[in-house]
Amino acid sequence: MGDAKVRFSDIYLATEPYIRSVGQVLIGAAGIGWKAAEGETEALEGVTIPGLTMPAGMLALQRDDLRRLQWQRVARGYGLRVFMKNGTLHKLDGFTADDYENLRDAVTRLLRGLTLETRDISTKGWNWGKPDFESTTMTFRVDNRPMFDLPMSHVSNTNLANKNEVSIEFQPPRGRLLKRKNVPDELVEVRFYVPGTTTTAASAKKGSDDEASVAGDEEEVSAASVFHDTIKDRADLGQVIGDSIVQFSEILCLIPRGRYNIDMFSNFLRLRGKTYDYKIPYEHVQRLFLVPKPDELHMMFIVGLNPPIRQGQTRYPYLVLQFVRDEEQAVDLNFDADEAARKHAAQLRPHYDEPLYRIVATVFKGVTGKRLVEGSNFRGYHGSQGIKASLKASEGTLYPLEKGFLFAPKPTLYIPHSEIASIVFSRVEASSSNKMRTFDLKFNMHGAQDYQFVSINREEHASLEDYMTEHAIKMLSELNETAAVSYKGMDMDSDEEGGRATARAITQGAAALGINSGDEDSEEDEDFVAGSESDVMEEFDEDYVSPDDGDDE
User: Fold this and answer.
1) Torsion sign over Cα 464, 466, 471, 473
2) Where are the beta strands (DSSP E) in 298-359?
3) 407-453 pLDDT per residue, tens
4) Could you give the strand order of the β-sheet that contains 31-36, starting from the edge strand earlier in sequence?
5) Please, which pLDDT band fits residue 388 given cuts at 50, 70 and 90?
6) Whole-structure pTM value
7) How far is Cα 15 from Cα 158, in angstroms, rounded to an integer?
8) Please, what is the Cα angle at 347 between 341 and 350, to 5 degrees?
9) Cα distance between residue 312 and residue 379, in whole Å
10) Rounded to an integer, what distance in angstroms lies between the CA atom of residue 47 and that of residue 58?
11) In this structure, are residues 43 and 16 in contact, taking their beta carbons and an 8 Å threshold?
12) End-to-end Cα distance, the chain
């Protein structure tokens, strides 16, 4: 029986991208098999391929399940494309040109009823052609010859960029991504210009293999929208009703901006807006934050994503959802959606009747298994959990948390304490040249980009310094960023020698003008700067520049 099998060595399993596992192909009367060579199974760990058995590293494709076999030129020489009856496509690369005859004879002799088709790839280099959908793969054809394939299973999002342009975004490669070596550039988006119009009857025929829609109900629509709907259908990106765990409607999203419907499924969520739809696997969720806005009327629920979602060239590593604090809803969860949904029943309740922001945060925490961070013990001057600040030209709120700083809503930024080398307080000490009531914070990072938050109210200084001290974060002087310093009692004690020199200069100037600098005049100066007992330097400077200002007040 062994003589009836044909073997080919040094063949790569290329069903999934970035898999560099080499092995041996066997073709027999029972079907086609591939077995990883010794030491090559490690590259297959964590990869889900139909028919692949682990840890043996063996792929078995039964004869009765085979539909078509194709031979074509690929990057690794020549490849065999195996089309299954269930729509799955397997790829075996690494054949040589001399293997074609042996492979063709083996298919004809052993896999009766099947033939080895030869697929000629178009190499004209044209950028216009015709898309052709077969099962879950889109083939772009030029002069009726295939130019490239787009597997619909790798599509993460599609949208109408404009009236005649459709963009398709791709998921990051699956598998053991962190252990890939010499990672090449990868395709993340492709756009198609689709001119012209068509009818609804034609769109039904093009978008589905089922029977055409009812005749007579024809409406002229753009060909781009038909192509867009077909991509959504083939890639399983459209709306699915009835099998989700829970649905949240018309949720206000600050980033990306708009109102979205959120459908929570067993292993992923769908974010559906008027223009953009996203399918986000739960393993892409890295962090969850729930913080109040400074107005105390709204709550922000922030979801950290890796990899981020994209809109064209714009990447969004965070979702920022906003809720009215007092808005309550009654929500029922469906744990009978499928078998995988039942595993979430232990972390969630079947019914919730409480503020909507709390329900959404609890459901996200339950289905993703991530820790929900809800502020910290920090309280600003006015008792809020965050302080108003600006990052570059964007105004927002800086939240000192237990293990890091969070800035929201835009641009959303999380800075862990472990990545902070030191923090510098700038423009803290008052003087004649600095009459602003704000100061800046500069974050010096360990080997990364530094961040500077500006326009922070001076009243927040004391609470921030207490927070830095409590979490053992190094603080540096603005004048000498290599020397640590404490700003407590800054206006009385900081730069003591400079203060004495300034005081002596002011005393001499006052004496020259015939002004008494005794204790009684100092008491009048304190009355002049109301509520600024610690701003000694500011008192002296004001008095020196304009001695008569006290009378005006």
Assistant:
1) positive
2) 298-311, 314-324, 328-332, 351-355
3) 999 999 999 999 999 999 887 765 545 566 888 999 999 988 899 99
4) 52-53, 58-62, 31-36, 22-28, 6-13, 89-95, 77-84, 66-74, 116-119
5) very high
6) 0.66
7) 23
8) 65
9) 39
10) 13
11) no
12) 108
